[in-house]
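Sanity check

After download, print the first record. It should look like this:
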Amino acid sequence: MTAPVIDIRRADDRLHTAVDWLDSRHSFSFGQHYDPANTHHGLLLVNNHDVVTAGQGFDTHPHRDMEIVTWVLRGSLVHQDSTGNSGVIYPGLAQRMSAGSGIQHSEKNDSWRLTGETHDEPVHFVQMWVIPDESGVPPGYQQLEIDDELLSGNLVTIASGRPEHRGQTAIGIRNKHAALHGARLPAGRSVQLPEAPYLHLFVARGSVTLEDAGVLGTGDAVRFTATGGQQVTAVEPAEILVWEMHASLGA
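Expected structure tokens:
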């Protein structure tokens, strides 16, 4: 039997990419940053916390066989891809791109091209990648507004491939072992984490206390193995993202 593990990873210890238009913090190995001891947790390979300046962003680039979920915290991000999907992602809009057999896309902070309203605000977002159950399938895209549910202060399913979440989740992903939940918590509000073989808790903004582990701040993360069910309580208004995973890469 696997022993329970609660592994706290502090914000300042994340890998860091900084250029003139991008500030990106990586929870796992990414790009030129490679640490063989930090490649994933459960099924989660990427948890990037990005800040992109106005008018800038990621030019068209390819992906393959990856489920990519993007969650905007502040500002707006324009998505365009080679299958003809395009739109503006903003806080409360759940978005998933299935790269499948191959897709090209761009992500830029230039929503005025579509809306006509200029701005100089950077966009803050978290992008998360999991491996799909099946490789080589046709690429896909899905988005849905779930802001009202998050404002309730409860833990809400943002994306899932779990059979038990059908009809409850905002968007689907092609992995039957994984689900992403999120909550916006007013000060003093508590939620209970799911129970699963693997969990990943990310504090996207604000600060919370984790039962039996203490205070976590913006950018802190916790990797749970063989444990769950703990209470998370907001010290100040906070937003959290929680991956529930019932399998692991290579397991």
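If your output differs, re-run the checksum step. Summary of this record's structure: DSSP finds two helices and 22 strands in the chain.
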